[in-house]
Amino acid sequence: MTASAPTAGRAPRPVTPAGLAYGAGAYTFWGGLPLYMAATAPASALEVVFARIAFTLVTCAALLFVLRRWRDVGRQLGSGRRLGATALASVLITGNWAIYTYAVISGQTLEAALGYFINPLVSVLAGVVLFGERLRRAQWVAVGLSVTAVAVMVVGHGTFPWLAILLALTFGGYGVVKSRLSTAVSPVASLGAETILLLPVSLAGMWWLAASDQMTLFSHGAGHFWILVLSGVVTAVPLILFGAGASRLPLTLLGLLQYINPLIQFLIGLLLFQEAMSTGRWAGFILIWCALLVLMVDSLRAARRNPRPRHGP
């Protein structure tokens, strides 16, 4: 997701209490998502994803009806370029949802948290590979530390962190695609357009689950039904908070707030779900945190030298 940058030469947005509340609220909401995912049991990861698509569309439709912003969806899907980018964004966010849901439901919340710690580094590399940006020395140090962290985890923990890497790549890719789309469309309309394209997948998937007797939506009581229905609200609310925060905060500060999300996920996995942390995994996490600290300090220094906000996921 991206925020609109001010026009060149305009002073950066001032930090306001409302902007901080919206931005921190969005990332805190996303950080607590493992608690919601755990509550969806015994639904499979696939059912949660299919339900999330359908009920997110319902939620977006209700909001767009109240706000009278359906024309925004038409603008999002009205041209070949935007339609193609929206379709790619839909594929990437669906993959991200599926991997994340599987990670939490299968007891790998710590690896999901690692993926979102790695995500800012993926954004940095995307700037180099896709947009020809040059990395500063500190950014190269951060990238080197992150690569070392993965190697340490492979050797010390015994497994390659596939889920974390895939989460970082899908969400990082989603951010890149969204950054290339027009920011004139509201976040709700943008998400609504994506879920419209995904609706056939959701309906086909739910039909397959029902036909193979794997659907739990209607067979495990009203409480379970409404928990899955809430997936639409759970998806839309933090997005709305993020949009409100992005319009009120400098992008540098918004980028720093994003670390609230994986930190909360890490604490949930470690303290509440009591997932195992081997020595190798601890070493890898510490190296990633060092990389992020280097990246954070470098970003703050760059922001002081050039106060104009930049586009970013």
From TrEMBL:
Compartments in which it is found: Cell membrane
InterPro entries the UniProt entry points to: EamA_dom, EmrE-like, RarD
Alphabetical list of Pfam families matching this protein: EamA (PF00892)
Transmembrane segments: 20-37, 49-67, 87-107, 113-131, 138-154, 160-177, 189-211, 223-244, 251-273, 279-300
Membrane-topology annotation of the record: Multi-pass membrane protein
This protein's UniProt keywords: Cell membrane, Membrane, Transmembrane, Transmembrane helix, Transport
Domain annotation EamA: ranges: 19-154, 163-296
Sequence similarity: Belongs to the EamA transporter family.
Stated name of the protein: Protein RarD
Species this chain originates from: Citricoccus zhacaiensis
